[in-house]
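[step 3/7] inverse_fold.run input=structure_tokens len=340
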């Protein structure tokens, strides 16, 4: 008999549902929330309200596109955390009610583990190219920047992580300082393609070991910009491509320097990247360059699986289903948690 998992993701500002049958993706629906654009960042209260409006139609659409009825589902997998509490509660409560009504098991998923396991999402008729265990995964998103040793689907070890801001958060904040839109990542990415990455130099952190820090870069960017704008009020408008390219290069260099160190020390040359920032063109190119230069086997996710999505929650749920890792209805959401 087939195993059919409904995945639900609502940790931040995307309401998403996906259906996976026997490890193969049947549908994935994402409702993004444009309401935050006017505020230059996610407003938690508005996010949870939008999730409330979106969750039922998004799940309905995912089932419809998959050609699957509710009664055919084997289990419901959902993001338990980390994320915004008000947002998480919508998905968690929905999953509890849904599984109870259908009499099927619930599977809690760590959002970060989901990002890493996005590499195992398979689509119908597609050649699968999945990283072999163990591999190293650079997980870079709006809330996290971590280097993870992935020993198995359910065995991950964080080797290094940011001690302050995440890479995506730094990009978003610098974009905000420049008066560009939200989220800043895709905008900086687009502008950077036309700019000179050597035009400006920003400070890089000196953190021991495999950890990251991005708050100094953010401050250095802000202070430099303030000085430049004193001399030329239209400085950003005149230099936005070069600013974006230089910022992107600095962040990519910081990320890759530590990653190279980990690969050298562990001897593991199978290297993946995951999370929203893995959509970035400069970072993807740096991975390709490292593959050429250092003989890494690299794994770069499809664009659709970089930012928050329920397909990654459903595939993680599928693996947990094999191990009968179900959870009980009294299980709470958690806003902060790391990979175990
Ligand atoms: O994984 P994600 O959707 O949410 C979290 O779990 O945090 O990541 C969102 C982050 C945001 O900071 C966004 O600006 C960044 O990913 N991002 C990008 C790009 N697309 C999204 N950063 C750089 N380049 C991109 N193309």
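[step 3/7] decode complete -> sequence:
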């Amino acid at each position: 008999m087939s195993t059919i998992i409904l995945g639900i993701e609502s940790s931040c500002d995307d309401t998403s549902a996906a259906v996976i049958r026997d490890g193969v993706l049947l549908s994935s629906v994402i409702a993004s929330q444009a309401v935050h654009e006017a505020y230059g960042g996610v407003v938690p209260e508005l996010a949870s309200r939008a999730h409330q409006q979106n969750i039922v139609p998004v799940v309905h659409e995912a089932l419809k596109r998959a050609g699957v009825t509710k009664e055919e589902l084997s289990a419901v997998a959902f993001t338990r955390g980390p994320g915004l509490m008000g947002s998480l509660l919508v998905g968690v409560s929905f999953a509890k009610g849904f599984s109870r009504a259908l009499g099927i098991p619930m599977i809690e998923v760590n959002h970060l583990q989901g990002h890493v396991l996005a590499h195992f999402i398979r689509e119908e008729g597609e050649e699968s190219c999945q990283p072999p265990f163990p591999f190293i995964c650079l997980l870079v998103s709006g809330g996290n920047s971590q280097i993870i040793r992935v020993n198995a689907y359910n065995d991950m070890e964080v080797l290094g992580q940011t001690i302050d801001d995440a890479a995506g958060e730094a990009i978003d904040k610098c974009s905000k300082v420049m008066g560009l839109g939200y989220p800043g990542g895709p905008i900086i990415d687009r502008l950077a393609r036309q700019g000179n990455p050597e035009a400006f130099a920003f400070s890089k952190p000196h953190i021991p070991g495999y950890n990251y820090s991005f708050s100094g870069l953010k401050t250095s960017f802000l202070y430099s910009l303030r000085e430049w704008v004193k001399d030329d009020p239209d400085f950003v408008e005149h230099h936005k491509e070069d600013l974006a390219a230089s910022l992107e290069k600095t962040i990519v260099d910081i990320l890759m320097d530590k990653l190279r160190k980990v690969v050298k020390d562990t001897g593991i040359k199978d290297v993946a990247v995951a999370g929203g920032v893995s959509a970035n063109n400069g970072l993807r190119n740096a991975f390709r360059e490292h593959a050429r230069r250092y003989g890494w086997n690299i794994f770069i996710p499809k664009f659709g699986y970089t930012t928050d999505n329920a397909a990654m929650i459903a595939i993680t749920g599928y693996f947990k289903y094999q191990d009968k890792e179900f959870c009980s209805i009294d299980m709470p959401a958690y806003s902060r948690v790391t990979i175990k």
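[step 4/7] annotate
The longest strand covers residues 24-32.
The longest helix spans residues 235-266.
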